[in-house]
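Inverse folding, one chain.
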């Protein structure tokens, strides 16, 4: 829980390809929408750095915020797994973003949030120290567009798919981001990039010729 003077952080965790595709990294059935044929693209590329950094993030969180699709996948899988990740997920509060008032979550410790996302995120910041959003691409795109996050963590894999849902699709809101730390690379060529939001939108200019050339 946060104290009265420190707001909690919203951290977004995404696996993505070099061309920005974040759809269904974990398996073929994760999100086959739009006839996506590369579901499970992350599995052939185990990476030691990714494993370590993912676990560091999971151990630091004290709440999960998930979109409906990712929540359903997690709720069906993790309660049955007697491993550290499953035990942590079971123990911490979970929030699922859904406008379905009939949703009756069965996973212990789950609360549905369906009102104004900005208001809900503000309340989460008051209740928790570090809330992680894992996967949940549709929800993530809204959080990014409305700047309702403190850190965007991207594990970028050296593959190009050419199709699939992207972190920043065409029409994404223009935004500035700041690299928090130098990139970190792993054994399979994945690179961890950590960004924080910056004020304003990208500026334009002209590349002047070098006066000393």
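Residues assigned per position:
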């Amino acid at each position: 829980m946060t104290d009265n003077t420190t707001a909690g952080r919203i951290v977004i965790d995404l696996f993505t390809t070099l061309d920005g595709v974040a759809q269904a990294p974990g398996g073929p059935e994760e999100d086959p929408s739009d006839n996506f044929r590369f579901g499970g693209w992350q599995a052939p590329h185990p990476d030691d750095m990714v494993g370590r950094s993912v676990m560091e993030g999971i151990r630091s969180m004290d709440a999960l915020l998930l979109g409906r699709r990712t929540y359903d996948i997690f709720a069906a899988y993790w309660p049955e797994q007697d491993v550290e990740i499953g035990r942590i997920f079971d123990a911490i509060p979970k929030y699922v973003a859904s406008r379905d008032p009939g949703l009756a979550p069965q996973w212990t410790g789950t609360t549905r949030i369906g009102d104004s996302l900005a208001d809900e995120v503000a309340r989460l910041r008051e209740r928790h120290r570090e809330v992680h959003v894992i996967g949940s691409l549709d929800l993530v795109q809204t959080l990014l567009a409305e700047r309702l996050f403190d850190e965007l963590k991207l594990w970028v894999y050296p593959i190009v798919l050419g199709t699939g849902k992207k972190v920043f699709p065409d029409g994404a809101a223009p935004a500035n981001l700041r690299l928090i730390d130098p990139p970190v690379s792993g054994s399979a060529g994945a690179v961890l990039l950590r960004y924080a939001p910056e004020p304003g939108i990208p500026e334009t200019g002209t590349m002047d010729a070098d006066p000393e050339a």
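The mean pLDDT is 92. The first helix runs from residue 48 to 60.
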